[in-house]
Design a protein that fits this description.
- The structure is a homodimer.
- The first copy, chain A, has about 230 residues and is an alpha+beta fold.
- Chain A is about 40% helix and about 25% strand.
- Chain A contains seven helices and eleven strands.
- The longest helix of chain A is centred in the middle third of the chain and has 25 residues.
- Chain B binds a DNA duplex (30 and 30 nucleotides) through helix 6.
Chain lengths: ~230, ~230
Amino acid sequence: MTLACETCPVRDRAACSVLAEEDRAELSRIGTTRRLERGESLFFAGDSSDSCATLVRGALKVSSLDAEGTERILALVHPAGFTGELFQPFTHHDVTALTDSELCVFGRKDLEAALDRYPELARALLRRSQEDLFAARDLLALTGKREVRARLAGLILAMARAASDSPCHPAERFELPLSRGEIAAMLGTTIETISRRMTELERDEVIRRTGTRGIELADPARLADLAQG
Amino acid sequence: MTLACETCPVRDRAACSVLAEEDRAELSRIGTTRRLERGESLFFAGDSSDSCATLVRGALKVSSLDAEGTERILALVHPAGFTGELFQPFTHHDVTALTDSELCVFGRKDLEAALDRYPELARALLRRSQEDLFAARDLLALTGKREVRARLAGLILAMARAASDSPCHPAERFELPLSRGEIAAMLGTTIETISRRMTELERDEVIRRTGTRGIELADPARLADLAQG
DNA sequence: CGAATAGTTGACGTTACTCAACGGCTGTGG
DNA sequence: CCACAGCCGTTGAGTAACGTCAACTATTCG
């Protein structure tokens, strides 16, 4: 499928947005659009790494399975995010759609050639890569909290921020993009413990729940407080 | 202090190694050498981010302090590693010397100008940044293990690999670069638990200890096994 | 020699994991 | 339309692991 950059919802934020209009048109010729259904994977750990992608719509998770088959979620990818490994022969991690998603996929060779041709693209990817690095370190700091309640509070806050239109205020009501199992896989705990701490947060009137994924921040200040502990 | 690239121990591996000899000479003019004593910090979280550095000798830790003042180690920096935030106004994390260290420091403005002038430098930093990203995700996967024993086994293995000359085989004997407290801060646990699991590993004849930091891998296969669990 | 720092060990309480049962929602087939 | 299976989430009881507090030891540095 050919790219439709003109109507692309991330055309102002994705890495390609740093290119001049004609260069972007050039780049669009080497990219293809791909749709993933919820649960479908873009990459599998160990596959040869021969493509990369910018997420246009939806959400992805980057995860790995340990020896017993327990999933660990290492990162989330939001629209305009980039995924794929440019300098490694094989993919380290699985990349899977959390919701139905749309991507802009580039062959690795093509992308490497484009990096040579458009130095500003390399800079843009460097910037994204550093952002991903800080996101990974933030998650590391979050999952280092001793009590699951603190980790969960921090994750809910992060989700509320991601769901918000404004960059400074968290959304007051939003839908969790993750199942209980996925939350547990992000925070390094179990479904049962997530469930317990979640009902606890509701009992203490820090959050309100509507359905299994709807969250309302009843007391954001206290939530932020708990996230510190 | 001026740079002495000719005798630099990381001249073949650091980001600057991708530059032609004359370009490197040019770059060396904007850099300065700096020495840090063990425990001395290069950056403090919240400072304005106006310099970056390549580590030449020694070892650094990237860490953050939570509200109660507990340290969390987010990354280690080894020689040839790069540290500093190019695209953020303020530094997110503390960067501190684990051992006496020597760095090659660049002003951020100068480095940004160099990125424009030498596209291959931007590519090299992109590559490093992606490696750092995978290192952060590896640590995330490691600290996600439920039992401290598994996390500790994984960390000891990673240290043994880092201490080895050959990239494939871990060193059989080496010195831990971290104190018990720093190990605990990396693995998200306490000094006491590290101490207990460490004596346990020795009692089970998986490792042998000489002094407080000397480690010998008595049974690397079993250690790798424990790291899975 | 003494103080300070780092590491070890013990006793105890708390948290979270495990295993298991149950409830609610959804989609399918009678 | 209802019955049922399957999936997801919740709740409960018991146990194992770890955190906390505290005492003690070893090492280093003046």
